[in-house]
Amino acid sequence: MKGIRGWMGLLLGLLATVGLQAQHGHMNAGAKGTEQGSQLAWINGALFVESSGYVGNMLYSHTGTYAGHYNSGPSLTALPATVANGGPSGSASALGSFLEFRYTVVAGPDGGEFSFWDGGAALPITSMGVGQTSALFPLSGGEDNPSAGTVGGDPYGHLHGRRFSADLAGDYIVAFQVVDTSVNGLGGGPIHTPSDLLNVRFRVVPEPEAVALMGVGLVSVLWMARRKLRSSR
């Protein structure tokens, strides 16, 4: 009986997990200082790093922009340095800096591809397998802050409608890095040095319908086993 109850508990836990919405949050880019040569950082990266237990659960979309894809957040943002953009944040990068990010697929299922969608895109703008690294994509700027990257410009950015997706079931470890691509530093180069890599775990979650069918089958097996156990007493 204890074994059957244990299996039932495991099944209920699995079904509850599938029912969860994809985790969403904001992974904020900033800097350790504002002086020339200071390093960029994912300021709240401790909440998302693989060792924290965070998992970006990717659920299947039947309709809308991401129909046919397993997808999830988080949203990647550049912290504001001025009141005009909701700051100043003490961890924002220097005025005049322009932050972008890139990512590397560190691990994933064989043949799986991890993709990034820009806001308003009908298809992912990049899809990569294990060992591949993306191009740079802006974090700063956007319609809300068009002066980002100019001399004295706020590096703030919160570009909406972006998403990550993957095509095969399993876990993906993705390393994110922030880079300053401005030309407002000494010698006409960037102000900041790139951040360390931040490894984040994503997980493709099976469709609820598929898990429900598995659950029905498991319940049937457990019921038959329990019935057989009773009849043998």
Sequence stretches where pLDDT stays below 50 over 5 or more residues: 7-23, 209-219
Tell me the domain tally. Answer: 2
Shape: globular
Order of helices and strands: HEEEEEEEEEEEEH
Strands, total number: 12
Number of helices: 2
Gyration radius, rounded: 22 Å
- Integer average pLDDT: 86
Share of helical residues: 10-25%
- Distance, first to last CA: 13 Å
> Main beta sheet: strand number and arrangement?
9 strands, mixed
Could you state the oligomeric state of the chains shown? single chain
Strands of the biggest beta sheet: in what spatial order? 8-7-10-4-3-12-11-6-9
> Given the helix and strand composition, which structural class is it?
alpha+beta
Q: How large a portion of the residues is in β-strands, by DSSP E? A: 25-35%
